[in-house]
Amino acid sequence: MPSDAPNLDPVELGAYFALIETGSLLRHAVEQQLQDAGGLSYVQFQLLATLGDAPAGSLRMTDLADGLVYSRSGLTYQAQTLEKRGLITRAPSPDDERTVQVALTTEGREVLTRVFPGHIAVVRELLLAPLSRPDVETLGGTLGRVRDHMRQTPPRSAAPRRR
Amino acid sequence: MPSDAPNLDPVELGAYFALIETGSLLRHAVEQQLQDAGGLSYVQFQLLATLGDAPAGSLRMTDLADGLVYSRSGLTYQAQTLEKRGLITRAPSPDDERTVQVALTTEGREVLTRVFPGHIAVVRELLLAPLSRPDVETLGGTLGRVRDHMRQTPPRSAAPRRR
DNA sequence: TATTGTTATACTCTATAACTATA
DNA sequence: TATAGTTATAGAGTATAACAATA
Fold it and tell me: With pLDDT > 90 as the criterion, what percentage of chain A qualifies?
């Protein structure tokens, strides 16, 4: 257990708290906007946006779940919700009959289009407004490095428990 | 509605996504640790930690809610949970009988103490490990500025709705 | 009348485990 | 046997509105 110094110094603590708080506030604000503009939760927006970016316009459930930190049952729940609203379709794949291909409908794409400008506006006003261009570049670089590191790091909290 | 450019360029988008993702991953990891080590949600930890930092060791419900983005009923819910577990006490204030003074119990302080080392370890391993000292300083400075800006900005999503 | 806090209630989301069907 | 996905179910958290009590 390599825990050298027991405590965080004020600078470290400051960076930690600032990250948690800005992340929360930004996400909360974006969530509000998505809800108001399109009745979407953030996760639902992410699912639609991921589908929108998909080359074929369709993905398997498992592919959709990847990166969105999801239990499969949670994804099924959201997919059902989005399908009921007519924003996506689900169909069994011809290749592998176990898998389900998920695709954006025209209406789904419309919702995405409708929601996007406001989404961007919130990010601009809340996150980018107080920053200079070099600030944004440095921030993206630093947090990008942190993100890559976090992705590599095994979700250590899960390991010691089951299995 | 000053939305100059409709889209975010790659650098802006990168900073935005990196912030959302690192914030989520870090919070998720910390939440896991808090749950495993002390059966606490992040919000519960924040409540206990806020009480722990309070000069008198006790705060009014309203003071507790401030900054933790809470509906009052949500705070009541968490306070009930924490009180049942014996981590806090609630008592009517002698001064103003409408208010409730919340205080950390000895056991509450113990849980906080028990949970803290692991909490710090997670922050170190996930956030601080891949960063140099200047990185951390710059990151804290930049995000601190963003946080201050976000706090000032009225929760615009709430304004247009009710009263 | 305004403020503090609770209650009732409903809804969203998440997670686990059991289950079905295909490979 | 392993993989893809669904279902059942339960639990945590959140929000709104109505309410009671005090200032």
Answer: 76
